[in-house]
Automatic annotation (TrEMBL):
Binding site for Zn(2+): H53, C83, C86
Reactions performed catalytically: adenosine(34) in tRNA + H2O + H(+) = inosine(34) in tRNA + NH4(+)
GO function terms (MF aspect): tRNA-specific adenosine-34 deaminase activity; zinc ion binding
Gene that encodes the chain: tadA
Zinc listed as a keyword: yes
Pfam families linked to this entry: dCMP_cyt_deam_1
Enzyme Commission numbers on file: 3.5.4.33
Keywords, ordered alphabetically: Hydrolase, Metal-binding, tRNA processing, Zinc
Stated family: Belongs to the cytidine and deoxycytidylate deaminase family. ADAT2 subfamily.
Protein name according to UniProt: tRNA-specific adenosine deaminase
Keyword Acyltransferase attributed: no
Amino acid sequence: MVFRSYMDQALDEARAAAARGEVPVGAVLVAPSGEVVARAGNRTRELSDPTAHAEVLAIRAACAAAGSERLPGHDLYVTLEPCPMCAAALSATRIARIYYGASDPKSGGVAQGPRIFSHPQCHHVPEVYDGIGAADAEALLKEFFAQRR
Ligand SMILES: [Zn+2]
């Protein structure tokens, strides 16, 4: 089986988020069949909702479409290391794999900070692959925050 990355689509969602004035983070959820079941970018400002991270919005859409609280066998592509909230939510979905781009020393919760998936209370640990499309994701974030200064 040939590995196909969906990170380009996640980066498109991140760019669309930036255009809306949101922190540029994008996520794509892929079913075991390879079908994209949800795409989302951050909408915390638009929705006045601090939990409206790209990952959470993608999980909500995919679970609603599946009629299930779980997404076994699914893959998530996200442009930035998930925060602790998103990592916990992803564990609850029983997702199979997470591919992320840039690491997030400030708010990341996977490779740093609380390291949710390494915690003994974590009931489901997905496979995690980092650094996928990281340069593009970092450039988007840098550009976004440079414009806000
Ligand atoms: Zn998050």
